[in-house]
């Protein structure tokens, strides 16, 4: 009981701490009164007070070392109390550090204290040179700081025109004021309430889980490749052994028959050629086998793939949420074209990775209104172009993984599917995205729970009124949902429910339902057999036993074996036309949203084994119709 009270006290304290941190003072007071009235455990606030007092001490130490020109103490405080991600990447922190380095370098010139000034000045100039060559090198292309790179080499900076500003009486107080403002923000951030820290940690864990899932997927692909290489290696060793035996036999005068050579070569190339193709090659012709072997291992010259310019994604996402409807639609179109018009392989992989790493759909945003909410826009063109972009994401395995991490996406898509006009382009793209997302187990199960099967059956009832795209993707989506192994549990649940009605039970008995169910129970599936026994009991009894059919979302996704394809329909019937002199597409992105070049890391292209499924073989796993169509 004591531990429960302590945990409750911690939780309540974290809530109160956050309310105070966010300056909800009135809410915090009401909260504390409510706790006292209900007799809840006392709040713990000592830790926060200690952090506050510690921050004050650190703040004073910073200013004291600044005023005294003690760069060694200041440097230690800076390294210890300013987070690395702020020190190394925040522009404000980088600029402030640069000016602070200047301050400590010229301090002996402004405040001489004795005969050791010259040696102290030389030491500080050496330190400043080192800074310019290391941490300060990042600002060497900035016009504002360029003149100061000559400071260590000027004999008397106090009289040099370029540095007059540094020796004015107002320069040091202004710099100190900037330092104080910076410290007030940073040190307050270090006192982040525990509740907010937990939330940020939770988001970080989710991001790590996403990376882990991707790593596991890549690991599985590499394991399959390794198994194939291992099998090829063993086959090669066997063929090599036979060839060595043949060489030894020829030394002893025994001739090798053409049929034997043909058989050995067919075994050698069977893993890399169709059997019919291997049989059609005359390996007995001199030089044929050796030429094919050399060609199979000849290195291909890598093609240079141009990388698209990086973008300022923060500005782009802000305009997607707050811009005009025309701008939103143009940006959505430009982002989609980046995916659909990029070269298949490395270039497209790089574009997709940039979109995901910069969270272009704001999966990890805590804002109430995000880019994803454009699916509910009042503007039909914005909704259409948002659905087109989501469909393009869903066409790629990495995009499907990214979309599957958005809990609200499926609800948005299903709502849109049921409210959009019957043959609108928006609904077609939503249907296409859902079909591609149905390659993933968790999404399949969610769609089934939300009654999508019933909706599809109703839509397909009047198939003559559907477009080719809608008909093809609706049938494929229905097939994917029905191929899910856990659909049996929903069917069993439905049977179990309707057999609670006496008239249904009597009809089922007359059609020998029990014998039919017994036939299915012969399968090697204990869980299915257990459910069938419950259904049979329901069939033979008016009582309703307490049993819930179980579902299994833990099966492997069918996504890994599905090839990335971009069907041409993604860019069909473009209704958006830019106004005169209005930018669109790549021109819009690179003119208004050009960012720092960050996508230089080359990504390995996914490779897929050739499909071994016969055309006449019944489907055993979900598929996407676009794999049989013209793609981009």
UniProtKB/TrEMBL annotation:
Residues 623-632 have a biased composition (Polar residues). Residues 549-572 have a biased composition (Acidic residues). Residues 58-188 form the ARMC9 CTLH-like domain. One of its GO terms (cellular component) is centriole. PROSITE patterns: LISH. Residues 447-485, 486-540 form the LisH domain. It is found in: Cytoplasm, Cytoskeleton, Cilium basal body; Cytoplasm, Cytoskeleton, Microtubule organizing center, Centrosome, Centriole. Signal peptide: none annotated. InterPro entries: ARM-like, ARM-type_fold, ARMC9, ARMC9_ARM_dom, ARMC9_CTLH-like_dom, ARMC9_LisH, LisH. Pfam families: ARMC9_ARM, ARMC9_LisH, CTLH_Armc9. Keywords: Cell projection, Cilium biogenesis/degradation, Cytoplasm, Cytoskeleton. Its main location: cytoplasm. GO terms for biological process: cilium assembly. Residues 541-589, 604-632 are annotated as: Disordered. This is LisH domain-containing protein ARMC9.
């Amino acid at each position: 009981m004591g531990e429960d009270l302590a945990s409750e006290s911690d939780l309540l304290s974290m809530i109160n701490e956050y309310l105070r941190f966010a300056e909800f003072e009135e809410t915090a007071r009401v909260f504390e009164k409510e706790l006292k009235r209900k007799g809840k455990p006392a709040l713990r606030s000592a830790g926060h007070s200690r952090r506050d007092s510690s921050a004050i001490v650190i703040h004073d130490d910073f200013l004291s070392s600044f005023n005294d020109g003690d760069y060694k103490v200041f440097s230690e405080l800076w390294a210890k109390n300013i987070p690395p991600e702020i020190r190394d990447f925040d522009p404000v922190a980088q600029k402030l550090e640069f000016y602070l380095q200047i301050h400590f370098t010229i301090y002996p010139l402004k405040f001489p204290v004795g005969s050791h000034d010259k040696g102290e000045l030389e030491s500080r100039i050496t330190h400043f040179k080192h800074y310019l060559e290391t941490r300060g090198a990042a600002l060497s292309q900035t016009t504002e700081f360029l003149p100061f790179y000559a400071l260590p080499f000027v004999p008397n900076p106090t009289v040099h025109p370029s540095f007059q500003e540094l020796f004015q009486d107002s320069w040091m107080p202004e710099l100190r004021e900037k330092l104080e403002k910076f410290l007030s923000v940073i040190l307050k951030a270090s006192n982040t309430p525990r509740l907010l820290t937990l939330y940020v940690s939770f988001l970080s864990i989710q991001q790590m889980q996403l990376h882990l899932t991707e790593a596991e997927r890549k690991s599985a692909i590499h394991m399959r490749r390794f198994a194939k290489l291992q099998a090829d290696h063993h086959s090669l060793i066997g063929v090599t052994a036979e060839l060595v035996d043949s060489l030894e036999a020829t030394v002893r005068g025994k001739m090798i028959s053409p049929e034997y050579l043909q058989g050995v070569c067919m075994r050698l190339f069977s893993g890399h050629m169709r059997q019919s193709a291997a049989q059609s090659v005359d390996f007995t012709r001199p030089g044929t086998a050796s030429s094919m072997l050399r060609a199979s291992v000849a290195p291909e010259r890598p093609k240079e793939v141009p990388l698209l310019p990086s973008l300022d994604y923060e500005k782009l996402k802000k305009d997607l949420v707050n811009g005009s409807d025309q701008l939103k639609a143009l940006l959505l179109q430009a982002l989609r074209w980046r995916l659909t018009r990029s070269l298949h392989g490395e270039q497209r992989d790089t574009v997709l990775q940039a979109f995901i790493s910069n969270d272009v759909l704001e999966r990890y945003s805590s804002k109430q209104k995000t880019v994803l909410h454009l699916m509910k826009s009042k503007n039909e063109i914005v909704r259409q172009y948002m659905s087109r972009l989501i469909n393009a994401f869903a066409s790629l395995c990495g995009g499907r993984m990214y979309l599957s991490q958005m809990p609200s996406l499926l609800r948005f898509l299903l709502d849109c599917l049921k409210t959009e006009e019957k043959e609108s382009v928006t609904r077609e793209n939503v249907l296409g995205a859902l079909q591609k997302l149905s390659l993933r187990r968790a999404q399949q199960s969610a769609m089934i729970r939300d009654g999508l099967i019933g909706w599809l059956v109703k839509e397909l009832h009047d198939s003559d009124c559907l477009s080719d795209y809608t008909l093809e993707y609706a049938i494929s989506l229905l097939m994917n949902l029905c191929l899910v192994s856990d659909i049996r549990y929903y069917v069993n649940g439905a049977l179990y429910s309707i057999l609670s009605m006496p008239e249904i039970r009597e009809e089922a008995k007359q059609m020998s339902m029990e014998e039919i169910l017994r036939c299915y129970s012969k399968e090697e599936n204990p869980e299915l057999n257990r459910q069938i026994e419950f259904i049979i009991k329901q069939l033979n009894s008016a009582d309703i036993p307490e049993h819930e059919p179980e579902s299994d979302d833990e099966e492997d996704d069918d996504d890994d074996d599905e090839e990335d394809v971009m069907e041409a329909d993604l860019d069909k019937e473009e209704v958006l036309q830019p106004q005169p002199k209005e930018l669109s597409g790549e021109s819009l992105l690179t003119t208004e949203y050009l960012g720092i070049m960050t996508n230089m890391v080359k990504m390995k292209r996914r490779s897929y084994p050739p499909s071994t499924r016969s055309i006449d073989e019944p489907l055993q796993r979900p598929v996407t119709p676009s794999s049989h169509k013209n793609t981009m």
